Structures are given as structure tokens and as C-alpha cells.
Automatic annotation (TrEMBL):
EC number: 3.5.1.1
Name assigned to this protein: L-asparaginase
Catalytic machinery residues: 14 (o-isoaspartyl threonine intermediate)
Organism field: Brevibacterium yomogidense
Keywords noted in UniProt: Hydrolase
Length: 363
């Protein structure tokens, strides 16, 4: 039997960071994909009695706060190419600050039929106890497991997040600590899907239904991609004209969290500021102060407004409370329930729904 094939895509982040000449300037992502993988000692990871054949791709070299949906669309195309070249799985490394966001997007958009497993590091390679190599090794073991390929093929688990040997579902995972090497936890009270132990994947849980969203497909580069702004050089503005800002690549969606005695006056400015939608992280099951209902309803008449909960776990309520500002009232005024998605993930889902021209998905 031939050796399994693994493709590694690197985007930068702590796992790729090294100190600069001036120690006071901190670390920056400068380490490439092949060097990141070397710390994982993948040549000793024997599957089918052979170590994997590994290929590498440096898709970006940025901090995680600078990763964009355009990067992730490019990652989908890279995963498709890797699958066409015979890869059995993909590992994507990046910074941890937006690792949960990238995993969520790729879980919905990866249609290559092979899994992509995302990971990173909390300690950069220059520190004692750097965790990047161990995380990449566990991610590689997960990506190359035949069960993961089966789950990716029917879109039940097209992407996963692996960290500190635990395997997380992208629809619920969150970064829950700023510095801990075990920074990620599963939301919704469900725990991780599994874990890696002794170079074996233990996978007692898996999603039961496909996460494929009809109408959501990253276009190939041979097809004009409307997600990429026009790169042509605009005419120079005259002295009395302001310099135009480049058009955003994707629709802009705001997230507003509701607080005690909050008037939510900011929602009135969203459409004028160019936002195409809003996610409202309400208190409890998805509630706002009674005094704000009129302005929230007015915004929902202009742009899509998704109602989430600021708690970060559980599902948005839909038919329990009927007082003004509660979920029955708000959904009756046109707001859309986020279901089990937290506000951050609901924002990404709404951006993609607007981009692809579909309704907000039920996930």
C-alpha cells in the first residue's frame, strides 16, 4: 500500500514567529511551512507502515488578525488542488486568535472531499516548551485518518480544529484563554469530538448531518471571482475630490453586543456606514431592552439582522418569551435566529450568505 499523502498550508501566526534583531520589538511570523513541519517529526509518524509524503505551501505570512476571507477562499482552492494531486488530508497552520473563525469557514466551504485540520501554537518556537510541533503532529495524524476522509467526503466534518491533542468541532469551538497552551474549548457543552493519544486518533463523536450549504461554493480562479475587488488602477482624483477607498471584498457585517441599560443607538448608523447586515448578541436567549425595540426593528427593515446570544453557549430562543424586546417579539419584527452559532460565527455565516446570495443557513 502506498504511503499516505499530506499537504501542509501555512498562513503565519505564532507557530511561525521568531524574534527580531531588536529583542524589544517582539516576535513576528517569518518561519515557513517546511520548517514548521520539521518540528513535528512527521518522518516518524508511521501510517500504513510508512511515514506520510508531505508537500508544503506558504499561502500567507501574517498575524492571525490579518487573515481575510480571501485567504480562506484561496485555501479552499489549494485544498482542491491537493486533493486532485492525490493528498489524503491537509493541515493548515495559522495564528490562534482567529483559528476558530478560519475553521468555521472552511468547515462550510471545503468541498474537496478530503479533510483540512487547522492548528497553531501558543508558544513561539524560540520559547521553552514550544507547542507547535506537537500540535502539527496531532493535526497530521487526524487529517490522515480514514474516518476523517469519510466525514469530509459527505461534508459532515470537512474541517476540524486540533489543539493540545484534542479534536474540536469548528461550529462550536472557541478560544477561551489568551495564553494557555490549552486555549481552546468546545462550546455548547458538548466537549471535544475526540483526541490524539500515542499517535492514534480516538474519535468517539462525529456530526450526524452534512454541513454543506446549497449555493455556497468558492469559484475556481478560471471563473471571475466577485469576492476579489477590482485591481485596476482608478483614475486619479482631482484636487477637490476625496481619494476613494477600495471596495470591500466581502459584505460588511457588524456585531453588536447588548449590555445592561444599553440604548443600541449605534444600530441606526449601520446602513449609512456601509454595513450590509448586523448580528445582535442579545442578553440571555436573545433579548434587548424594551426601549430599543423600535430602532432595532427599523434597522431590520433595511438590512438583515441576526439575533444571537451573548452567552456563547446554547441556542437562541424562538418561542418562550413574549414581552417587548424578547425573542418572539424580535423574530416577529424580521430578525433571524442564529440557532446555536455564537455571534462571531453568525457574523461569518451572514457574510457568506450575503456574498453567495442565499438565506442565512440553519446549521
Amino acid at each position: 500500500m502506498s504511503a499516505p499523502r499530506l499537504h501542509i498550508i501555512a498562513l503565519g501566526g505564532t507557530i511561525a514567529s521568531a524574534p527580531q534583531t531588536d529583542a524589544a520589538s517582539g516576535v513576528m511570523p517569518t518561519i515557513g511551512a517546511e520548517q514548521i513541519a520539521a518540528a513535528a517529526q512527521l518522518d516518524t509518524l508511521t501510517l500504513e507502515d510508512e511515514p506520510p509524503l508531505v508537500t508544503f505551501e506558504q499561502l500567507a505570512q501574517v498575524g492571525s488578525g490579518s487573515i481575510t476571507l480571501t485567504h480562506l477562499f484561496d485555501a479552499v482552492r489549494s485544498i482542491r488542488r491537493a486533493a486532485a494531486d492525490g493528498a489524503d488530508g491537509v493541515v493548515l497552520t495559522q495564528g490562534t486568535d482567529t483559528l476558530e473563525d478560519s475553521a468555521f469557514v472552511l468547515a462550510l466551504l471545503n468541498d474537496a472531499g478530503i479533510p483540512v485540520v487547522l492548528t497553531g501554537a501558543m508558544r513561539n518556537p524560540s520559547l521553552p516548551g514550544a507547542d507547535g510541533g506537537a500540535n502539527v503532529r496531532s493535526a497530521a495524524r487526524t487529517a490522515l485518518d480514514p474516518r476523517m476522509k469519510e466525514l469530509a467526503a459527505d461534508r459532515r466534518l470537512a474541517a476540524a480544529l486540533v489543539f493540545a491533542d484534542e479534536v474540536f468541532d469548528p461550529l462550536s469551538v472557541t478560544k477561551a484563554h489568551t495564553t494557555s497552551v490549552a486555549a481552546f474549548q468546545a462550546g455548547l457543552g458538548q466537549g471535544p469530538l475526540g483526541w490524539v493519544s500515542e499517535d492514534r486518533l480516538v474519535l468517539p463523536h462525529a456530526p450526524a448531518a452534512s454541513r454543506a450549504v446549497p449555493g455556497w461554493s468558492v469559484p475556481d480562479l478560471s471563473v471571475p471571482d466577485q469576492s476579489v475587488p477590482d485591481q485596476s488602477v482608478p483614475e486619479a482624483p482631482t484636487s477637490d475630490q476625496p481619494t476613494p477607498e477600495p471596495a470591500p471584498a466581502f459584505p460588511r457585517v457588524a456585531v453588536l453586543e447588548v449590555g445592561l441599560d444599553d440604548d443600541l443607538s449605534l444600530v441606526e448608523e449601520l446602513a449609512e456606514a456601509g454595513y450590509a447586515g448586523c448580528v445582535l448578541a442579545g442578553v440571555g436567549g436573545g433579548h434587548v431592552p424594551q426601549s430599543t425595540v423600535a430602532r432595532v426593528a427599523a434597522v431590520a427593515a433595511e438590512v438583515p439582522v441576526v439575533l444571537a446570544s451573548r452567552t456563547g453557549a446554547g441556542a437562541t430562543l424562538e418561542r418562550t418569551y413574549g414581552y417587548p424586546g424578547a425573542e418572539i417579539d424580535l423574530l416577529g419584527r424580521g430578525l433571524v435566529p442564529a440557532g446555536t452559532l455564537n455571534a462571531r460565527k453568525a457574523r461569518l455565516a451572514l457574510i457568506l450568505a450575503l456574498h453567495f446570495g442565499t438565506d442565512f443557513p440553519v446549521l
